Amino acid sequence: MKIPFKLLAVVALFFTAVVVRASPAAVAANQVLEKFHRAASEAKFDDYFATFTPDGVFIGTDATERWTVAQFKAYAKPHFDKGRGWTYTKVERHVNVSADGKHASFDELLDNKSLGRCRGTGVLRLVDGKWQVEQYHLTIPVPNELADEVVKRIRERK
């Protein structure tokens, strides 16, 4: 079946029109998040922690896990020294750069072999022309239909 050229042109124009071009700042912020996940997966301690601001915070999946960079380094070092990092594969990511260009917020869906689908959210800050992680928050999204049961089980543990 031969598709008329005019139809192809309209389809091409439609798909061209919906492509969103990311700003250079958003592209650079995205690259930092790629480096962040790659360094963790490869257990590259220095590369991983170079992505954080000095006053950065990592918030893990457990309610007790709110770590400064120093605390998170102490937790991660023994694992990384043994060559064991953690691998989260990006499924989808959204980066929004602030109007003044000094901060970027993000949210991402990730896959992990042990935890399944996860969500990372956080804030990047521009420091001396370089994006760095100011806060990273890793969560395990709970499907709405399981929320009551999950809350019940958490309350039973207290």
Textual characterization of the structure:
The structure is a single chain. With 158 residues, the chain is an alpha+beta fold. It contains 5 helices and 6 strands; from the N terminus they run H-H-H-E-E-H-E-E-E-E-H. Strand 3 (89-97) and strand 4 (103-112) form a beta hairpin. The longest helix is centred in the N-terminal third of the chain and has 18 residues, at 24-41. The radius of gyration is 20 Å and the shape is globular.
Strand-helix topology:
Layout: H1 5-17, H2 24-41, H3 45-50, E1 52-59, E2 66-68, H4 69-81, E3 89-97, E4 103-112, E5 116-127, E6 130-139, H5 144-157
Strand content: 25-35%
- Whole-Å distance between the termini? 66 Å
For the record, the CATH architecture stands as Roll
Number of structural domains: 1
Which structural class matches the secondary elements?
A: alpha+beta
- Largest beta-sheet characterization: 6 strands, mixed
Search tags:
158 residues, alpha+beta, Nuclear Transport Factor 2, Chain: A, six-stranded mixed sheet, 41% helix
Short description:
The chain is an alpha+beta fold and about 160 residues long. About 40% of the residues lie in helices and about 35% in strands. It contains 5 helices and 6 strands.
